[in-house]
Amino acid sequence: MAPYNASLRVWRGDVSGGGLQDFTVEVNEGEVVLDIIHRLQATQTPDLAVRWNCKAGKCGSCSAEINGRPRLLCMTRMSTFGEDETVTVTPLRTFPVMRDLVTDVSFNYEKAREIPSFTPPKDLQPGEYRMQQEDVNRSQEFRKCIECFLCQNVCHVVRDHEENKEAFSGPRYLMRQAELDMHPLDTKERRAEQAQEDNGLGFCNITKCCTEVCPEHIKITDNALIPMKERAADRKYDPVVWLGDKIFRRK
Ligand code: SF4
Ligand code: SF4
Ligand code: FES
């Protein structure tokens, strides 16, 4: 592919407001959107704010919206778009803008702190933990999360409803509850119920938008949220499951 000039539209501004600005930036073979943003920064807008670290899809820092779709800047190839197409890059919409493409994602850190941490049995020391491979495999998928917050950003429960933010932890942290609820060595009781009562699991109407944007292809809805909804409902409404839980509750 010969180098070409792409039309780039980038949101610039800060907490007091801003708007889209148009630029023309050179694109070379194999480049990703982050390369183009860096070239823009190097040649035309040295003060453009953009957050990134690894440029390998692993740190989760470069999340933004490209043509309205939440994506990682470093994992989106320019070849995804036509050479005559305008590529519009805007900050994550669900979180407050700090400057240009950088948003304040502290909502997510607050929600992370609300999830009780892994609570192993008191009599087991690190190094003595043993799990079935089947249990390891189940939670392995969730451990691939790079905390890019694209799922948190796209979820309609908070995307257009600032008022829901207090009551809703978002798919990433509901998934964390699900992961620990499935963990055979976690002794914290009633995680699914807590997800329902305290973390807003009931707000989720399984639209799967979170799953669609996850760059790690984690099946957030099918493998974490739906099973946890079922467990919460079983324990609440099925007397046999309720009794079994009472009798066989892990010590
Ligand atoms: S499936 Fe649930 S958590 Fe995921 S985007 Fe939809 S409402 Fe939000
Ligand atoms: S679950 Fe996927 S989309 Fe959500 S924060 Fe983790 S890696 Fe990002
Ligand atoms: S720069 Fe690390 S995920 Fe994009």
TrEMBL record:
One of its GO terms (cellular component) is plasma membrane. One of its GO terms (molecular function) is 4 iron, 4 sulfur cluster binding. Keywords: 2Fe-2S, 4Fe-4S, Iron, Iron-sulfur, Metal-binding, Oxidoreductase. Residues 6-93 form the 2Fe-2S ferredoxin-type domain. The keyword Metal-binding applies. Its cofactor is [2Fe-2S] cluster; [3Fe-4S] cluster; [4Fe-4S] cluster. Gene3D superfamilies: 3.10.20.30, Alpha-helical ferredoxin (1.10.1060.10). InterPro entries: 2Fe-2S_ferredoxin-like_sf, 2Fe-2S_ferredoxin-type, 2Fe2S_fd_BS, 4Fe4S_Fe-S-bd, Beta-grasp_dom_sf, Helical_ferredxn, SDH/FRD_Iron-Sulfur, Succ_DH/fum_Rdtase_Fe-S. It holds the Pfam family Fer2_3. It is an enzyme of class 1 (oxidoreductase). It comes from the Bacteria. Pathway: Carbohydrate metabolism; tricarboxylic acid cycle. The keyword Iron applies. GO terms for biological process: respiratory electron transport chain; tricarboxylic acid cycle. Its EC number is 1.3.5.1. Belongs to the succinate dehydrogenase/fumarate reductase iron-sulfur protein family. This is Fumarate reductase iron-sulfur subunit. It comes from Mycolicibacterium vanbaalenii. The lineage of its organism: Bacteria, Bacillati, Actinomycetota, Actinomycetes, Mycobacteriales.
